[in-house]
């Protein structure tokens, strides 16, 4: 402010003149402009009224450099290699699968495969009937008890009646002898053979697998089991099988020791459903899916409840995240180095020590962070020299 500075000089007030001159440099004529922007221009080496200098330090602070050219090339090469490797793996897998003699089962539209679909419990009941009358003569279910049927496909009284139909060995009694008793709900399904050796002897050396988790234990799940049960056919020309083996293209090796277990009208369902081959295979596969995954319906029910709860909590969590982290993520930190020439002039000797010290104090208020040390040279006019070890002002 030239007018205020001139008036102060006429009155002999050197300190007021220095302050007025400094405010004129920072604020510009008639107090226009932003103090922060003018002080940044002054500290970056520009003269009053000019734009800040584009020094290398300022350029590096004003923008964030992206990845280098070499890094981009390396990332692009890695992406191309990953894509090529994935394509090669798919091509090789398809070629190997095409050369196999094993026929892969198709994907059937099971009613329980939907995201919110449950098992068909009437089909589970019919499937248990198929297992009881057809499959239980060779295959065991060591991990399924009669109590597991309660509330799924039978009532408690019906399950008790089913359990009482079998005789279970128990004991010993008071005489130390084993005895037979009617089954209870806590009993597991009876085994067709007492040990694996007896099972092999009765099936031409083949051991019938346990069916408790067979759907989870076979690649393809119920699709494989359904295709295996309905896929028996005559061997093609040129293929000969030894006695006791049957041709099934879905079985590994195409030669299976199990005779075709189901056919049309192999049994009669209690509810009157026609017992076609496909219907019997479908029902027993649904039953085996339940035995392999009895928590199927409960898992989907809990998943639906969790989706509903998470749908209510997600907006609240997002609002809390924005409330806590938006300030930290949007904050920008920059260091503006002071003008070296200006600092050297301010720290030099001068006959007007008091005026120069006041000028440095006012300038330190504008530059953040800026530390000025007085070397104690040129102090005069009755003004004591400041402390040489402490900065004039420190602003954090």
TrEMBL record:
Q: Where are the transmembrane segments?
A: 73-96
The UniProt entry, under PANTHER family, shows: CYTOCHROME C1, CYTOCHROME C1, HEME PROTEIN, MITOCHONDRIAL
Pfam families assigned: Cytochrom_C1
Taxonomy of origin reads: Eukaryota, Metazoa, Chordata, Craniata, Vertebrata
Q: What is this protein called?
A: Cytochrome c1, heme protein, mitochondrial
The record's PROSITE patterns line, in alphabetical order, gives: CYTC
* Presence of keyword Membrane: yes
Q: How is the cofactor bound?
A: Binds 1 heme c group covalently per subunit.
Coarse class of the protein's main subcellular location: mitochondrion
In this chain the Cytochrome c domain maps to 122-223
Provide the residue span(s) of the region labelled Disordered: 38-69
Per the UniProt record, the source organism is Monodon monoceros
Q: Which GO terms describe its cellular component?
A: mitochondrial inner membrane
Q: Which UniProt keywords apply?
A: Electron transport, Heme, Iron, Membrane, Metal-binding, Mitochondrion, Mitochondrion inner membrane, Respiratory chain, Transmembrane, Transmembrane helix, Transport
Where does this polypeptide localize? Answer: Mitochondrion inner membrane
Q: Which GO terms describe its biological process?
A: mitochondrial electron transport, ubiquinol to cytochrome c
Which residues does heme c bind?
135, 138-139, 258
> From the UniProt record, which GO molecular function terms apply?
electron transfer activity; heme binding; metal ion binding
Concerning InterPro entries, the annotation shows: Cyt_c-like_dom (IPR009056), Cyt_c-like_dom_sf (IPR036909), Cyt_c1 (IPR002326), Cyt_c1_TM_anchor_C (IPR021157)
UniProt feature, compositional bias: Polar residues: 57-66
Subunit record text: Component of the ubiquinol-cytochrome c oxidoreductase (cytochrome b-c1 complex, complex III, CIII), a multisubunit enzyme composed of 11 subunits. The complex is composed of 3 respiratory subunits cytochrome b, cytochrome c1 and Rieske protein UQCRFS1, 2 core protein subunits UQCRC1/QCR1 and UQCRC2/QCR2, and 6 low-molecular weight protein subunits UQCRH/QCR6, UQCRB/QCR7, UQCRQ/QCR8, UQCR10/QCR9, UQCR11/QCR10 and subunit 9, the cleavage product of Rieske protein UQCRFS1.
């Amino acid at each position: 402010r030239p007018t205020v500075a001139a008036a102060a000089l006429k009155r002999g007030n050197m300190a007021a003149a220095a302050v007025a001159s400094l405010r004129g440099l920072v604020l510009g004529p008639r107090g226009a402009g932003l103090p922060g922007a003018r002080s940044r221009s002054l500290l970056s080496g520009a003269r009053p009224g000019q734009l800040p200098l584009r020094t290398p330090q300022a350029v590096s602070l004003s923008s964030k450099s992206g990845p280098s050219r070499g890094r981009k090339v390396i990332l692009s090469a890695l992406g191309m290699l990953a894509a090529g490797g994935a394509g090669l793996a798919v091509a090789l897998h398809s070629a190997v699968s095409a050369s196999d003699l094993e026929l892969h089962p198709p994907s059937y539209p099971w009613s329980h495969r939907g995201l919110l679909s449950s098992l068909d419990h009437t089909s589970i009941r019919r499937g248990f009937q198929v297992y009881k009358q057809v499959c239980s003569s060779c295959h065991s279910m060591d991990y399924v008890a009669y109590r597991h049927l309660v509330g799924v496909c039978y009532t408690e009284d019906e399950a008790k009646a089913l359990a009482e139909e079998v005789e279970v060995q128990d004991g010993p009694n008071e005489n130390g002898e084993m005895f037979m008793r009617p089954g209870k709900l806590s009993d597991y399904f009876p085994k067709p053979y007492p040990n694996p050796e007896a099972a092999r002897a009765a099936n031409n050396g083949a051991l019938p697998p346990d069916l408790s988790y067979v759907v989870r234990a076979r690649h393809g799940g119920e699709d494989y089991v359904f295709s295996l049960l309905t896929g028996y056919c005559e061997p093609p020309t040129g293929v000969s099988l030894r006695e006791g083996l049957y041709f099934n293209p879905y079985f590994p090796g195409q030669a299976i020791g199990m005779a075709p277990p189901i056919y049309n009208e192999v049994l009669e369902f209690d509810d009157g459903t026609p017992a076609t081959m496909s219907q019997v295979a479908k029902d027993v596969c649904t039953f085996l899916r339940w035995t392999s995954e009895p928590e199927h319906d409960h898992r989907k029910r809990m998943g639906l409840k969790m989706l509903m709860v998470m749908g209510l909590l997600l907006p609240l969590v997002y609002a809390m995240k924005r409330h806590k982290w938006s300030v930290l993520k949007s904050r920008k930190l920059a260091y503006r180095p002071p003008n070296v020439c200006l600092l050297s002039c301010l720290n030099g000797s001068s006959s007007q020590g008091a005026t120069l010290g006041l000028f440095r104090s006012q300038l330190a208020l504008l530059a953040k962070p800026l530390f000025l040390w007085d070397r104690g040279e040129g102090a005069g006019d009755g003004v004591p020299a400041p402390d040489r070890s402490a900065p004039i002002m420190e602003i954090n």
